[in-house]
Amino acid sequence: MALGMVMFYPSTLAELEVGQHLYWQVGNLKLHGQVFLTSWFVIGLLVLVSVLATRNVQRVPSGLQNLMEYALEFIRDLAKNQIGEKEYRPWVPFVGTLFLFIFVSNWSGALVPWKLIHLPSGELAAPTNDINTTVALALLTSLAYFYAGFSNRGLGYFAKYIEPTPILLPINILEDFTKPLSLSFRLFGNILADELVVAVLVLLVPLFVPLPVMILGLFTSAIQALIFATLAAAYIGEAIEGHGGEEHE
Amino acid sequence: MIHSVWFLAVEAAEEASGGLFDLDATLPLMAVQFVLLAVILNALFYKPLGNAIDERDGYIRSNKVDAAERLAKAEQIAKAYQQELAETRRQSQAVIAAAQEEAQKLAAQSIAEAQQEAQAQREQVQRELDEQKRQAMATLEQQVDGLSRQILDKLLSAAS
Question: Could you tell me if residue B160 is inside a domain?
């Protein structure tokens, strides 16, 4: 019945509830409740799987431990490739958590039937389709690479702003703003657009037709998680190495 | 019903703080939450499994080194064995050669002895033969002398 209404009244595409939030008031702060609910689910899932995987660590891994070791090896390889053999180890938790959190968030948004749970306002979806989450992650990435740069090269880190020539100073400074901006909007846009496309297709043709798009969405979600983690690692590696410029898209 | 949904949608849109790009306290809290997650996962996931992986790497590496050592040792032993084998073979060949030589020497010696004996025997037989021949010749000469004397006597008697 709800579907019918939306089809008859295209202007009620607000039924997709873009830009509606479940507001929680804490003190005089406003929070997006639906984002926190799903992010707690994601965090709980990650912690649960980690606990289960490491409960009984064997030399010959099997089952869940094997899966998580595969994930960890994957993350280590990613960090090693971007940051370098020597420095990558302390950054594995950060890059790995970025990847796992975004990946599980995206897939939970695509796979868990959140819409079955009705909220007073807004709807449950992947935490990464809220701009707050992606900006938070992107800013953390910025902080991380600044920290990496300063802790490794001290004030010499500023030298990268006038490399290779001082003429590029404005562009180099601009880069520090474009990096988090592109990171956050890329993730946010991709996930939101994917969910919108799926939602619109489901509204128009509820059966089978949205399936290819959903599968494509799963693929995109995984790729976005990989891209975010890889870029974060690349920025950190760049800050440590000190070869400015080079944008890895 | 339709109207109520429509109304709600409009109301939501009109709400001042709604919208796609609604940045609020969710952002810092999410960041804090994420850092907490990273810390928790570091303790629960990255460290234990990372240690497990590194430990396994070490275990495999040490086992590999051990195996390589053992292989080297085995190869050395095999080499020593081969050398020993070759040595033994050479010795046995030397023994065989020595035995053959000795046998040949023995054979040659016995052949020489036999030849010497045969020679001696032949010489003795020859000597005996010669003796007999001489005796026979002497006898023959005596007979010839006797006969010639008879002939002479006969001739002389006939002539006289």
Answer: no
| Helix or strand holding residue A24 (H, E) | strand A23-26
**Total number of domains in chain B:** 1
Q: Residue B128 corresponds to which tokens in the numbers above?
A: 């005996």
Residues of B in contact with A181 (CB under 8 A): none
Cα distance between residue B118 and residue B116, in whole Å: 5
Cβ contact A21–B46 (<8 Å): no
Q: Is residue A246 part of a domain?
A: no
Q: Which of chain A's residues have a Cβ under 8 Å away from the Cβ of B29?
A: 31, 36
* Minimum Cα–Cα distance from A48: chain B residue: B44
Q: Name the residue range of residue B53's domain.
A: 32-122
Bond before A180 cis per omega within 30 degrees:
no
For residue A24, list its beta bridge partners: A31
* Shortest alpha-carbon distance between residue B95 and chain A (Å): 59
Which domain does A100 fall in, by range?
A: 21-241
Residues of chain A positioned with their CB less than 8 A from the CB of B10? 14
Q: Do A12 and B18 touch (CB under 8 A)?
A: no
Q: Is residue A249 part of a domain?
A: no
SS3 A200: helix
DSSP code, position B67? H
How many domains are there within chain A? Answer: 1
- B45 and A53 in contact by Cβ < 8 A? yes
* Closest CA of chain B from A85, distance in Å: 15
B64 touches chain A (CB under 8 A): no
Q: Quick check: is A165 in a domain?
A: yes
- Does residue B81 belong to any structural domain of this protein? yes
The whole-angstrom separation of Cα A43 and Cα B74 is 54
In order along its 249 residues, chain A shows pLDDT tens digits of 333 333 444 444 435 666 677 888 888 888 888 888 889 999 999 999 999 888 888 878 888 888 998 999 999 999 999 988 888 889 999 999 999 999 999 998 888 888 778 777 777 888 888 888 899 999 999 999 999 888 888 888 888 888 778 888 888 889 889 999 999 999 999 988 888 888 888 888 878 888 888 898 899 999 999 999 999 999 999 888 865 444 444
> Cβ–Cβ of B28/A136 closer than 8 Å?
yes
Give B 16-35 residues with CB within 8 A of chain A: 17-31, 33-35
Examine the predicted complex and report whether its ipTM is higher than 0.85. no
Q: pTM for this one? A: 0.72
In Å, how far from its chain's centre is CA A72? 17
